[in-house]
Amino acid sequence: MNGDENGEEQAWSGMGLICVHQRLSLFHSYPFVSELLAVPCPEGMGFGRVWVWAMRGDGAYNVGMAKVRSNSAFERLTDRLSRLPGIGRRSAQRIAFYLLKASTEEAEALAEAVLAFKREQKVCGECGNVTESDPCAICADADRDGGQVLVVEQPSDVASLEQTGVYGGVYHVLMGRLAPLEGVGPGELNIERLVARVRGGKVREVILGTNPTLEGDGTALYLAEQLESMGVKVTRLARGIPTGSLLAGASKAVLSDAIQSRHGMGDG
Ligand SMILES: [Zn+2]
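# zinc ion complex -> structure
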């Protein structure tokens, strides 16, 4: 596999690096193949190249490139998986290997769960939350205060806040936070709809509930700048010492937040 010209492929002919599918089976059945690394093949090309690291029983090893077909089932799956957020090429391959060993029933259950999710889950046109109805149950609830909008990063944040049972307003889900280094700008988030809701005139207060992280704070600052000029009251969720914890265990940042966010004993 060190090139066709120098004839070195003879020493490694047992590997038969022809297609990705074949590499897969070799990975499992030949102990001298210690690790295989694939790099993405260019989209739309019938062939791509992979880097291959192989080791023989006598300790000799070889690193080279092999030409592979990029449209095998393995490549198609790893290509799809590596498009998912947080899944790199290596993770995609690990998942593919797992599915290779899994039962057909398990693979079918996964595929069916993905399809059912796409069929049944909707995004609320009002708040952007993931829901099974549009508008979602919270937006459709006439007993909730539509004048108070709590802005959060993820649907899971809505679920956490709802568990408290103390909030009677509605929500707005951004589906992320501003992260310029990852290429997430205002256009990638559900911000335009939030501005439209405020422009609609029914919103009295926007509560910024993005996470108290560098990026969450940056997102809150950006939103505050956008919204305050529109004459709506903009507040930020308080931060401080978690209930049930000790001052001695709190970090400097938490303690300084707690001092700055202090409130009167009767304010709740
Ligand atoms: Zn909604």
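# post-check
The domain at 8-115 is CATH 1.10.8.420 (Helicase, Ruva Protein; domain 3).
Residues 1-57, 65-70 have pLDDT under 50 and may be disordered.
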